[in-house]
């Protein structure tokens, strides 16, 4: 094998395979996919009370602000001490949903038309029993009024937990969007 030239990073000379995590069964992957697809449909249909029913009591729903940093910058790209679009527990999520459903939410009258597409679902065991780490990507398209249309895309890292009745619930979500500056006028959607 040739040694790397000074301009060529050493990682290119000996690429490493990704660390393999124990694979999830096809049945579990299918169950998780159906959970995520159902969740997306509930959001698209504005069935927010049912959507909240998919959460655990200790949910942490986090969407940090993204900063465009150079690779040589040692600061973490995602830092919980910086600004976040969402940094919510269940109580804050209930407040957001309540606000969406009140007649005084003028920004939602007429309502936003949303479409979530979920893809690239990967499931791996978490450190705790009956919990799973789920990676996925999403595209959210929103229509407002007659001519406005906005799109958000990104990736998510979820922690799903199997609860006492055997069903899955969302215990944590980290959302990383591709935009550093939100191009929409508002963020009146869950992702």
UniProtKB/TrEMBL annotation:
Question: Where is the stretch described as Disordered?
Answer: 1-21
Q: Does the keyword Signal apply?
A: no
Query: What UniProt keywords apply to this chain's record, in alphabetical order?
Result: Dioxygenase, Oxidoreductase
Question: SUPFAM superfamilies, alphabetically?
Answer: NTF2-like (SSF54427)
**Source organism per UniProt:** Ramlibacter aurantiacus
| Name of the protein this chain belongs to | 3-phenylpropionate/cinnamic acid dioxygenase subunit beta
UniProt xrefs under InterPro entries:
NTF2-like_dom_sf (IPR032710), Rng_hydr_dOase-bsu (IPR000391)
The text of the family note is:
Belongs to the bacterial ring-hydroxylating dioxygenase beta subunit family.
């Amino acid at each position: 094998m040739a040694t790397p030239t000074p301009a060529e990073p050493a990682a290119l000379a000996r690429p490493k395979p990704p660390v393999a995590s124990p694979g999830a069964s096809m049945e579990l992957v299918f169950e998780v996919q159906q959970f995520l697809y159902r969740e997306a449909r509930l959001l698209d249909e504005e069935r927010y009370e049912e959507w909240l029913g998919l959460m655990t009591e200790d949910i942490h729903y986090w969407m940090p602000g993204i900063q465009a940093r150079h690779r040589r910058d040692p600061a973490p790209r995602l830092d919980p001490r910086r600004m976040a679009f969402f940094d919510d527990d269940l109580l804050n999520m209930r407040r957001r949903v309540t606000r969406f459903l009140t007649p005084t939410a003028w920004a939602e009258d007429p309502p936003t038309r949303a479409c979530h597409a979920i893809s690239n679902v990967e499931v791996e065991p978490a450190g705790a029993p009956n919990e799973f780490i789920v990676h996925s990507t999403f595209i959210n398209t929103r229509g407002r009024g007659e001519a406005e249309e906005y799109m958000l895309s990104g990736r998510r890292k979820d922690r799903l937990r199997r609860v006492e009745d055997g069903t899955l619930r969302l215990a944590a979500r980290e959302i990383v969007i591709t935009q550093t500056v939100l191009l929409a006028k508002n963020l009146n959607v869950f992702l």
